[in-house]
Design brief:
With 1058 residues, the chain is mainly alpha-helical. Helix content is 71%, strand content 5%. The longest helix has 85 residues, at 306-390.
C-alpha cells in the first residue's frame, strides 16, 4: 500500500528495475495520520486488515508466499474480481502506477454542448468537469475528476474515467465513468476500445440511451471550439452594439442641437440616453475579454487557431474603443451640465456676497484712518524729542517730552490693534465668498493690513525714545573712563617715533636695539588701551556698545595707523646692516665659476685631439676614444652646476634688496646686477664649449649606428629571397596556386623552404635588435641637446629600422602561413565537390518543375487532378531537398571563408556559381508557390460563391414570400391566413438575413486569409471578393426594404386582428 498524489491508492508496482521483496522481508506498510509509512518483516501467515473508505487503517500483511489479497464485489448476481489484482498466472498484468517522472498529462473535459434539460440531471451534473491522468488500467490511461477545493458543503464524489476490457463479457467492455476502478457505482458507459476516451457516444446512465449532446474531449480541443464559436457570436453582438451606439450618439447630437428646451434639461436627456449604451458596451467588453483570456491564456490553448485569437483581440479593441468613446461623450455631457448648474449657482452667490462686502467696507476704512492719524500724532512728538537729544538739551525738559511721546505712541498702538482686529475679522468672513468677490475683498483688506503694518513699523522709534535717551547718558559716562588709557598710549607712540628718527639718522646696532624696544613698549600701551575699550563695549547693554564704538573708533584707528608706520622704519634700519654682506658673497662665487670654465676648455681640447687620432683607423670611433669624449661633458656639467648656483644666489639676494626701500638698496643693488651680468657671460661661453663636445660625440655615435643598420638591411633581404622561394602570388590554375603556393613544388618541398626562411628570419631579427638597441641608447643620451640635423639623422635611422621590422614581419607572415595555405587548399577542394552536387540537385528540381502541366480547368477529371497533385508534391519535396542542400553548401562556404583566411579568394570565385544556383532554385520555388496559391484562391472563391448563391436564393425566397398588397374592391383574406402569411414572410426574411450575415462574415474571413498570399494572388482574390461583397451589399439593401415591408405587414395584421 503506497500513497500517491496526496491520497491513498489501492496498489502500486515496484520501482522500475527493482525486484519485489522476498517472502522473508515482505513490506508491511501501515498508514499514519501524516501519510508516512514504515516497513518491517512479516511474522507469519494470514491476511491483514483492509483499508477503510477514508484510507486509514493497516494494509494486508502478505503470507510467506507474498500472496496478494484480491478485492471482489457482486454485480448483477455475479462475483467480480478486481482486474488489477487478478492472478498473475491468468496472464493479466496488475495495476501499475505511472512512473515518477512522466510527460505532461492530458486534461479532458466532460461537458454538454447545448443547454437543455439533460444538463440538470444529477448523473450528468456529477460527471461534468475536468479530468487529469491518474495511472492506468487494462492497458489504458485512467483519468480522475478534479474537484473545486474552494467549494463548501457536502463532500464531492470521486469520479474516474477508465477502460474495462472484455474479460467479464462483451457487455462490460468499453470506457466507464465510475467512483472507482471496477466499482459498482457507475454513471456512464461507451462501448469503445480506443486508446483514448471517446468524445461522443456515451450512455447516461450507463444502461440508458446515448446522449448526443454530452461530450468528453481534450481540453485543448474544447477551448479551440469554444473560441471559434465565441468569435462568430461576439462578432455579431459587437456589430449590433456598435450600430446601437452610433444611433444613440446621433440621437444625442440631435438633442444637443435642439435649442427649444433648456440646456440643462437637454444634457440630462443625453445622459439618460447614453447611460444604457455604456452598460451594454461594458458587459459586452467583459464577455470579449473573457473569451480572449480563455483562448490565449493557459497551457491548453495550443490548438486555438491563431486567426481566431487575432479576431477576438480585434473585437476586444473595437468594443473597448466604442465603450471609451461612449463614456467620453457621457462624461462630456455630464460635465457640461454640472458646469452650467455651477455657473448659475455662482452668479447668485456673487450677488449676495457683494452686498455683504459693501456693508463691511466702511468700518474697515474708518478704523484704518483713525490708526494712521494716531501714528502721525505720535511721530510729531517724537521728532521734537529727537531734536533735543541730538542737541544735548535739558534733561528735565527731555524727560517731559519723552513722557508725552510715550502716551501718544500707546494711543496709536491701541488704534492699530483695533484696526488689525477689524481687518482680520473681515478676512475670515470673506473666505466663504464667491471667487470673484473674494478676490476683490482680499485685495482691499490686504492693502489695509499692509497700511497697518507700515504704520506699526513707523511707530517703533517713538516707542523706543526713552531707551534711546538712557543709552546716550550711559555712553558719555563710559567714554570718560576710556579716554585716560588712550592718552597713555599716545605718549608711548610719540617716544617710539623719536627713536626711529635717530635710527635712520645714524644706523648702528645700538640704535636698532633702542628703537626696537620703544616700538614694543608702544605696541603694549596701545593694546592695553584698546583692550579696555573692547571690554567696556562688551559690557555695555543694548545699543550703548554700538554708540560707544562709533564715538571712540576714530581715535582707535589713528593709534593703529601710527603704530603700523613704525614697523617699516625698524625693518629698513635692519636691512641696511644686512645688504652689505650679500655683494661680497656673490663676488666669491663668480671667481669659482671662472676656474671651472678654464678646466672645461682644457678637456675639450684633449677630446678633439683624440678624435683626430682615431679617425680613419676604426669604424667604431667610440670604442677607442670614449673616455676622452665624455671628459668635456663632465667638466661642463660641474661648471654649469656652479654657475646655476651662483646665478640663483644673486637673484635671491636681488629680490631681498628690492623689497627694501630705495634708500636701503642703494649701491648694493647695482653691484649685484653687475655680478649677474658677468655670470651670464661665463655661462654663455660654457654653453658653446659644451655644445661642441656633445656634437663631436654624437657624430661618432651616429656613424656606429649606421654600420649596424646596414648590416640588418642585408639580413632582411636574405629573408625576403627565402620567403619568395616558398610562397608566391595566388593564381587560379591549380589548388596550390589558388592559395598562393608555388605550383612546381610539392607540399613537402614547400615545408622545407619555409624552415630555411624561418632560420634566416631569426638571424635578421637579432641584427635588427642590436641596431635598435644602439640607436635608442644614443638617442636617449643626446635627446636634450640634439640639433635639427642630428635629430633628422636619428629619425632616418629609426625609420629605416621600422621599415625593416615591417618588412620582416611581412616576410614572416608569408612563410609562417604555409600550413594554413595547405589546409585551405584541402578546404577549397571539399567545397567544390559539395557545390557540384548541389548544382545537380537544383537541375533535377527545375526539370521536374518544367515537367508540371499547365493549370487544370474546372472540367478536368479526378485522375488528372490526382496525377497533377502527385507531380506537384514530388516537385515540392525535391525543392525542399534542394533548398536544404543549397543552405548546407552556403553554410559550408561561409564557414570555410571565416575559418580559412587564405581560402577566401578561392572561395570567393565559387560565390557566383552558388548565387546562380540559389537564384535558379528561388525562381523554381516561386513558380511552385504561385501554382499552389492559384489553387488556394480557386477553392477560397468557390466557398465564397457558394455562400453568395445561398444568400441570393434566400433573398429570392424572402421576396417570393412577401404577402400580396390588398387591392381595392377585393375581399381581404381572413385573420388566420394573414397571420400565417406574415409569419412565413418573417421567417423567410430572417433566414435571408442570416444567410447575408454569414456571407459577409465568410468574405471577411477570406479577406484575412488572402492577405497572407503574395501580392498578385492577393490582388486577384481581393478583386473577386469585392465583386462578391458588392452582390451581398445589394442583397442587404433589398433585405432592408423587405424588413420595412415586414413591419408594415405586421402592423396591418395587428390592425385587422383588432
Amino acid at each position: 500500500w503506497l500513497k500517491r498524489d496526496g491520497a491513498p491508492c489501492r496498489r502500486a508496482s515496484w520501482a522500475a528495475g527493482a525486484a519485489p521483496p522476498s517472502s522473508a522481508m515482505a513490506p508491511r506498510v501501515p498508514w499514519s495520520a501524516t501519510g508516512q509509512a514504515s516497513a518491517y518483516p512479516a511474522d507469519g501467515d494470514g491476511a491483514g486488515e483492509h483499508v477503510g473508505a477514508d484510507g486509514q487503517g493497516e494494509a494486508p500483511r502478505p503470507t510467506k508466499r507474498a500472496r496478494i489479497l484480491t478485492p471482489r464485489w457482486m454485480h448483477n448476481g455475479t462475483e467480480h474480481q478486481d482486474p488489477a489484482h487478478a492472478d498473475e498466472s491468468a496472464g493479466v498484468q496488475p495495476y501499475a502506477a505511472p512512473p515518477a517522472k512522466e510527460s505532461v498529462s492530458q486534461t479532458y473535459v466532460a461537458y454538454v454542448r447545448t443547454l437543455d434539460a439533460d444538463q440538470a440531471e444529477p448523473a450528468i451534473q456529477t460527471i461534468l468537469g475536468e479530468y487529469i491522468e491518474r495511472g492506468a488500467n487494462h492497458g489504458r490511461k485512467v483519468y480522475q475528476k478534479v474537484h473545486d477545493k474552494t467549494a463548501t458543503g457536502t463532500r464531492a464524489l470521486d469520479v474516474l474515467v477508465y477502460y474495462w476490457d472484455d474479460r467479464d463479457g462483451d457487455k462490460y467492455e468499453g470506457w466507464w465513468f465510475g467512483n472507482k476502478l471496477g466499482g459498482s457505482q457507475v454513471w456512464a458507459h461507451c462501448k469503445d476500445s480506443g486508446e483514448s476516451p471517446p468524445a461522443v457516444g456515451w450512455r447516461v446512465p450507463w444502461n440508458g440511451y446515448v446522449r448526443p449532446e454530452f461530450a468528453f474531449s481534450r481540453k485543448q480541443e474544447k477551448i479551440a471550439r469554444d473560441a471559434k464559436h465565441s468569435a462568430a457570436t461576439l462578432s455579431e453582438q459587437v456589430d449590433q452594439a456598435e450600430i446601437s451606439a452610433e444611433q444613440a450618439s446621433e440621437q444625442a447630437q440631435g438633442i444637443i442641437m435642439d435649442e427649444r428646451t433648456n440646456l440643462t434639461a437637454r444634457l440630462a436627456e443625453v445622459e439618460a440616453l447614453l447611460a444604457p449604451q455604456i452598460l451594454v458596451l461594458r458587459d459586452l467588453e467583459q464577455k470579449v475579454t473573457e473569451a480572449v483570456r480563455s483562448a490565449t491564456v493557459g497551457p491548453h490553448t495550443t490548438q486555438v487557431d491563431p486567426q481566431v485569437a487575432k479576431d477576438l483581440r480585434q473585437l476586444s479593441a473595437r468594443i473597448r474603443a466604442k465603450k471609451e468613446s461612449a463614456a467620453a461623450s457621457f462624461a462630456k455631457a455630464k460635465g457640461k451640465r454640472k458646469e452650467v448648474e455651477d455657473a448659475e449657482k455662482t452668479k447668485d452667490r456673487e450677488e449676495l456676497d457683494l452686498v455683504m462686502w459693501n456693508d463691511m467696507l466702511p468700518e474697515a476704512v474708518e478704523k484704518v484712518n483713525i490708526a494712521e492719524d494716531s501714528v502721525e500724532t505720535a511721530m510729531i512728538a517724537y521728532d521734537c524729542v529727537r531734536t533735543q537729544i541730538d542737541e544735548d538739551g535739558d534733561p528735565e525738559f527731555v524727560g517731559n517730552s519723552i513722557a508725552e511721546t510715550e502716551a501718544a505712541a500707546k494711543k496709536a498702538m491701541s488704534a492699530l490693534g483695533e484696526a488689525e482686529i477689524v481687518v482680520k475679522t473681515h478676512l475670515t468672513k470673506t473666505r466663504n465668498f464667491a471667487p470673484i468677490v473674494k478676490e476683490k475683498a482680499e485685495a482691499e483688506l490686504g492693502r489695509f493690513k499692509q497700511t497697518v503694518d507700515d504704520a506699526r513699523t513707523k511707530l517703533a522709534p517713538a516707542l523706543a525714545a526713552r531707551k534711546e535717551w538712557d543709552n546716550r547718558q550711559q555712553v558719555q559716562a563710559v567714554a570718560g573712563e576710556v579716554q585716560e588709557q588712550l592718552v597713555v598710549a599716545d605718549m608711548a607712540v610719540d617716544a617710539a617715533e623719536e627713536a626711529t628718527v635717530v635710527l635712520h639718522a645714524d644706523p648702528n646696532e645700538d640704535a636698532l636695539k633702542h628703537a626696537t624696544a620703544k616700538v614694543q613698549a608702544a605696541e603694549k600701551a596701545v593694546n592695553k588701551a584698546l583692550g579696555v575699550l573692547d571690554k567696556k563695549v562688551g559690557e555695555a547693554v543694548g545699543d550703548v556698545g554700538e554708540a560707544l564704538k562709533a564715538k571712540l573708533d576714530p581715535r582707535k584707528k589713528a593709534l593703529r595707523e601710527r603704530l603700523e608706520k613704525l614697523r617699516p622704519s625698524i625693518e629698513d634700519g635692519a636691512a641696511k646692516l644686512r645688504v652689505a654682506v650679500y655683494l661680497t658673497e656673490a663676488r666669491n662665487k663668480l671667481d669659482e665659476l671662472e676656474g671651472l670654465i678654464k678646466k672645461t676648455e682644457e678637456a675639450d681640447a684633449a677630446a678633439a685631439a683624440a678624435i683626430a687620432h682615431a679617425d680613419g683607423k676604426d669604424s667604431k670611433v667610440l670604442a677607442s676614444a670614449e673616455a676622452k669624449l665624455r671628459a668635456p661633458e663632465a667638466a661642463a656639467h660641474a661648471a654649469q652646476t656652479a654657475g646655476s648656483a651662483a646665478k640663483t644666489y644673486v637673484q635671491m639676494k636681488l629680490i631681498e634688496v628690492r623689497r627694501a626701500s630705495a634708500e636701503v638698496a642703494g649701491e648694493t643693488a647695482s653691484g649685484l646686477q653687475e655680478v649677474q651680468r658677468q655670470i651670464d657671460a661665463l655661462l654663455k661661453q660654457l654653453m658653446d664649449s659644451r655644445t661642441r663636445a656633445v656634437r663631436r660625440r654624437r657624430d661618432a655615435l651616429l656613424k656606429d649606428a649606421e654600420v649596424l643598420v646596414s648590416k640588418a638591411e642585408a639580413c632582411v633581404k636574405d629573408v625576403a629571397k627565402a620567403a619568395d622561394a616558398c610562397v608566391g602570388p595566388a593564381s587560379s590554375s591549380s589548388p596550390m596556386g589558388r592559395v598562393g603556393l608555388p605550383e612546381t613544388m610539392t607540399p613537402e618541398q614547400v615545408r622545407q623552404a619555409a624552415m630555411q626562411a624561418a632560420s634566416k628570419e631569426r638571424h635578421a631579427a637579432e641584427a635588427i635588435a642590436e641596431a635598435r638597441k644602439n640607436v635608442a641608447a644614443r638617442q636617449i643620451e643626446a635627446k636634450k641637446e640634439m640639433s635639427t640635423e642630428e635629430a633628422s639623422a636619428v629619425s632616418s635611422l629609426q625609420a629605416r629600422l621600422a621599415t625593416l621590422l615591417t618588412d620582416l614581419a611581412e616576410q614572416r607572415k608569408r612563410f609562417a602561413t604555409v600550413e594554413q595555405r595547405l589546409a585551405a587548399r584541402r578546404a577549397v577542394e571539399e567545397v567544390e565537390v559539395k557545390l557540384k552536387e548541389t548544382e545537380d540537385k537544383v537541375a533535377q528540381v527545375l526539370a521536374s518543375i518544367d515537367a508540371l502541366p499547365e493549370e487544370l480547368g474546372d472540367d478536368a477529371s479526378e485522375e488528372a487532378r490526382k496525377a497533377d497533385a502527385d507531380m506537384a508534391k514530388a516537385a515540392e519535396a525535391g525543392s525542399r531537398e534542394a533548398q536544404l542542400a543549397v543552405r548546407m553548401t552556403t553554410r559550408a562556404l561561409e564557414m570555410q571563408s571565416r575559418l580559412q583566411g587564405f581560402a577566401k579568394e578561392a572561395l570567393a570565385s565559387l560565390l557566383p556559381r552558388m548565387t546562380e544556383c540559389q537564384a535558379r532554385l528561388d525562381q523554381g520555388v516561386a513558380v511552385l508557390r504561385e501554382r499552389a496559391e492559384k489553387g488556394f484562391v480557386r477553392s477560397l472563391l468557390q466557398e465564397v460563391r457558394a455562400k453568395v448563391s445561398d444568400c441570393e436564393r434566400r433573398a429570392a425566397e424572402a421576396a417570393d414570400a412577401e404577402p400580396p398588397v390588398p387591392q381595392d374592391g377585393v375581399a381581404a383574406p381572413d385573420v388566420a391566413e394573414v397571420g400565417r402569411l406574415a409569419l412565413r414572410f418573417e421567417r423567410a426574411v430572417q433566414a435571408a438575413q442570416q444567410a447575408q450575415s454569414t456571407s459577409k462574415s465568410t468574405i471577411s474571413m477570406k479577406r484575412l486569409a488572402a492577405k497572407r498570399l503574395s501580392d498578385n494572388s492577393a490582388k486577384r482574390a481581393e478583386e473577386a471578393l469585392d465583386a462578391s461583397q458588392a452582390v451581398v451589399d445589394a442583397i442587404g439593401a433589398k433585405l432592408t426594404a423587405l424588413r420595412t415591408r415586414l413591419a408594415e405587414v405586421k402592423v396591418a395584421s395587428h390592425r385587422q386582428a383588432k
